[in-house]
Write a structure and sequence with these properties.
CATH superfamily of the domain at 17-175: Leucine-rich Repeat Variant
Shape: elongated
Distance between the termini: 110 Å
Protein name: Radial spoke head 14 homolog isoform X1
Organism: Salmo salar
Radius of gyration: 26 Å
CATH topology of the domain at 17-175: Leucine-rich Repeat Variant
Largest sheet: none
Order of helices and strands: HHHHHHHHHHHHHHHHHHHHHHH
Strand content: under 5%
Helix content: 55-70%
CATH class of the domain at 17-175: Mainly Alpha
Number of helices: 23
Structural class: mainly alpha
Number of strands: 0
ARM repeats: 229-271
Amino acid sequence: MASTRISEQLPPHIDLTQAPVAFGNRALPRLSLELQDPQLCIRQRALAALCDLVHDPKRAYEAIHKGCLERLKALLQDRDSSVRIKTTEVFYLLAAHNVGREAFLTWDVVAPLSDLLDEPVDACRKNMHRALKMVAEFPAGAVCMVTLGLVPRLVLKLPVEQEEIRALILATLSYCVRVDALPALASNGVPMLRNQLSHPSPDIRRAAASAMLGISVPSEGKHKVCEEGVFPVLVKLLSDCDPGVTASAAGTIMNTAIITKGKYQALKAGAIPPLLELVGSEDRAVCANALRALTALAEAPCAREQLLEHLPLLKTRLNHPASIICRAAATAIRVISWTP
């Protein structure tokens, strides 16, 4: 006769590192309670389960409105490093959703998250910076970071952070300086960024060049770029293999060449030949920025004389399918062809 046998093995697909998730609408309220449990293992398992759930935007929305954010903010100061790592991971996953980024501003998450800038655990800092970068991509998030005074603190972290985290900081700064470049300028941001432009990592070069493009927009930034001798590095970056780097380098030259000092420093650094090479680029941003930079440089008589023989090259861009390229080429031709 058959008999009932109870196996000592656990059922398949059971993860002991995660808390059991309650059914339906009870899942998030129960996890929210477990996040503040005094027992470490329960908090760890609740965070692991929450990490899986908030990949789904609907679950992320539910977690935010079931009180999880306040619990998570408290866990950022937990004594256990594994709890802090998982907590910052949850915040990063929430920041990937638009509803999460809006909640960061509504529930004041950015400030307690930024308190981990001096966190000793690398994985925790990395998750924190990934979350801040996601929030900074949201215009209101960048405004929030600038208002909280995070830009000077981020600039100071550039020389000391490991490469992967440094690239995240630079990306965050590139969004913040578009909102207001003055805090970065006041924190010696230009020399800090200049030192990163020659880094072997393409991610760091791309993010640093993007931040330099933003910081060169205000008048103070243009003069600072000239004072710090950035043009030789920018001209070298015009030959970079990464189109994001070359577009930002050409854009920075374009911005800074608006002032007379910028024009002549760019010409002295030999900017015209590599810019002419970029006119034929198939990348829209690279080509447009190169044409605009040449237009700004052509306001100097010596540059206009040099560029006159290259008008046939510029005219080939007049029939480009992108209207932005056509307009930039037409403006460049008009300025170069101008006679007193």
